[in-house]
């Protein structure tokens, strides 16, 4: 390689490195995603997820905490990814909790109906 082509290649590599660094630095802070994730975890908790979907709920909490750490360290790419995962897990936990509560209510209604049937049968005999 000649001195000129070596200098040209070095310049290209330096420009690519600068472009990459600028691209990383320009990632916006995921403040909105963090807020959405916190809200989703809060909703899941209100829906009973700690009781009815503990694995998913704990996962959402852990990922949200990791997202907070990444956010504080200004690793916004990781913070966004973790916050998105936390939101998904929280929504899954909320859905499972609501489903479990609905199933419990259905079972209680069935028991009540069965008790009424038995009462009616007993009185008619």
Please outline what is shown here:
α2 runs antiparallel to α4, α2 (31-46) runs parallel beside α5 and α4 (54-72) runs antiparallel to α5.
Percent strand: under 5%
Provide the number of structural domains.
Answer: 1
What is the 3D form?
Answer: rod-shaped
Evaluate the radius of gyration: 27 Å
Quickly name the level 1 CATH class.
Mainly Alpha
- Summing up helix and strand content along with how strands pair, one would put the structural category as mainly alpha
The whole-number mean of residue pLDDT values reads 87
Tally the helices: what do you get?
5
How many distinct beta strands? 0
Low-confidence stretches: none
The biggest beta sheet is recorded as: none
User: How many angstroms separate the termini?
Assistant: 106 Å
Question: Which fold does the CATH topology refer to?
Answer: Substrate Binding Domain Of Dnak, Chain:A, Domain 2
Q: Which quaternary structure do these chains form?
A: single chain
* Helix content percent band: over 70%
Summarize the helix and strand pattern as letters: HHHHH
Q: Under the CATH scheme, which architecture would be assigned?
A: Up-down Bundle
Can you tell me about this structure?
The protein has 125 residues and is mainly alpha-helical. It has one domain: Substrate Binding Domain Of Dnak, Chain:A, Domain 2 (Up-down Bundle). Helix content is 89%, strand content 0%. Helix 2 (31-46) runs parallel beside helix 5. The relative contact order is 0.12.
